[in-house]
Amino acid sequence: MEFRAAVLRSYQDPFAVERVALRSGPAAGEVLVRIAGCGMCRTDLAVRRSAGRSPLPAVLGHEGAGVVVETGGPDTGLGVGDHVVLSFDSCGRCPNCAAAAPAYCDSFAALNLFGGRAEHAERFTDAAGGVLAPRWFGQSAFAEYALVPARNAVRVDSALPVELLGPLGCGFLTGAGAVFNSFGAGPGDSLVVLGAGAVGLAAVMAAGAAGVTALAVDRHPRRLALAERFGATPLPADGADLPGRIRRLTDGGAQYALDTTASAPLINDALRALRPTGELGLVARLNTALALEPGTLDRGRRILHICEGDAVPALLVPRLIALWQAGRFPFDELIRRYPLAAVNEAERDCEAGLVVKPVLIP
């Protein structure tokens, strides 16, 4: 079958919306999904800076949601017409997958970033027959259709606006999961979020739902205003003595900090702002060496890396939807819709900070 997709052919060129083809339908354990909407994540855009490690040409997009139109058999647990949110791929067999930690799958990088499943190679091509890179995060959802492992797909209520739900599978999952799962934060705890983008604002919303006192640090006044609307105390990143301001507002120091910026100065500020036994979670990839200043890890303070919010998507996605329905996780306020043909405009707006979460509508 042929359909439209946004293809990235080089690390420098814009996306090209063109015809692509699936040379076969879903195999055992797979489903074909008609994409209703796909969020644009910073990880998609970071491919341009991946130093050639992510294979091209490729169809990116890993926050897809839509409707199942074909299944590879009864073992998928899904049926035609089911509405699904798509998330990251995992093998389902390694020790971490067996321990309900699929984000730390032994094959995570290979499946999601650097090649995909071997059985999918050469099944996905451009209209001329040129091979496209295997599925990005098991999806390649900047497209009208996506062929995905059924374990990637979380069934949701068909009455919901499925075109808006894709970001719950990655960006919003990561921020909320950091609060609920990685930190296990609750009433009486305090959290400082560094970077009020999609992941950071999801953490702020989750903190509010969990009864956690939240502070948000960012350079952009508009994003600080959003954080404040969601219940956080806004702190400009360029103000003097950031650690001191945080300590004063949290009665001696925050218990938790979540960094979404990969900025070494901000990471050191966050560590200095923690109370004894405080924890700093890192979600952004560090591209340079991280030099920690003396004393920042004293008195039981810890650093941990958080991938995909330590989430089992089949458990956390429904929880986030329930919170949204209750008015306690208003992620839809961060979304701006773009037609698939405007993928390059969406990328420019995202990089310029004009939109928090673009969602492409095929």
From TrEMBL:
Tell me, what's a Pfam family for it? ADH_N
> What keywords are assigned to this protein?
Membrane, Metal-binding, Oxidoreductase, Transmembrane, Transmembrane helix, Zinc
Query: Which cofactor is recorded for it?
Result: Zn(2+)
Cross-referenced InterPro entries:
ADH-like_C, ADH-like_N, ER, GroES-like_sf, NAD(P)-bd_dom_sf
Q: Which CDD domains match?
A: benzyl_alcohol_DH
Which top-level group of life is the source organism from?
A: Bacteria
- Mention one GO molecular function: metal ion binding
Q: Which residues cross the membrane?
A: 164-185, 191-217
Its family?
Answer: Belongs to the zinc-containing alcohol dehydrogenase family.
What the entry lists under PANTHER family is as follows: NAD-DEPENDENT ALCOHOL DEHYDROGENASE, S-NITROSOMYCOTHIOL REDUCTASE MSCR
> This chain belongs to which protein, by name?
Aryl-alcohol dehydrogenase
Identify the species of origin. Answer: Kitasatospora viridis
